Description:
Elements: H1 2-30, E1 34-40, H2 46-59, E2 64-70, H3 75-82, E3 86-91, H4 100-108, E4 117-121, E5 138-144, H5 151-154, H6 156-160, E6 164-168, H7 180-190, E7 195-198, H8 207-213
Parallel strand pairs: 1-4, 1-5, 2-3, 2-4, 5-6, 6-7
Helix pairs in contact: 1-4
Amino acid sequence: MHEIFDISMEKNILEANLRIAEDNEKKLKKYGIRAFDVLGSIGSGKTALIECIAEELKKKGVNVGAIAGDVAGDDDYKRFLKCGIQAVNVNTGKECHLDAHYIEHALEKLNLDQMDVLFIENIGNLVCPADFPLGTEKRVIVISVTEGDDMVRKHPIIFAQADIVVLNKTDLAEYVDVDPNIIVSDFSRVNPNAAIILTDVKHKKGIDELMRVLNL
């Protein structure tokens, strides 16, 4: 009986999240905002990637916004503000992921009339966020070569749901004895219809290609 109750409760939570995510999507479309859910482990380079893309978009006159999701703290939020990005900070406390409800309230704190593109930086892991869509246009997963060449094999569910994967810090591959081609091959088997882009955000390599794939 306990197991049945848990399954039923989980189903209700996921269904409620999906309904709110659909409302978020409608709201974003109403304002003409393109939104991206950016996931990845801590240290993969999510924040730096968003900053880099935002800088390029600002050169084109595109207004960028960001939602910085973390269990605690506001370091990424402060980085976005310093970069000139309209941003809001979301701390989840004990929750290991953002959900659509968090995003619903975060959107209320942003000036949507002054935004063209929104990046949502999710909590730093590749497990919990898998079951919680937020209402974004695409789900972008950022990983780095420093995490090893078995990332896809260890987290197949989230990679199967990815629209785009960014393999970052490729400049360090030889130093950590990782072959990026192994990661690319693993991802192609798990998700043959999605793109994987190799980047070195620190030196702005691969950013143009990524932006083309994102149609930005």
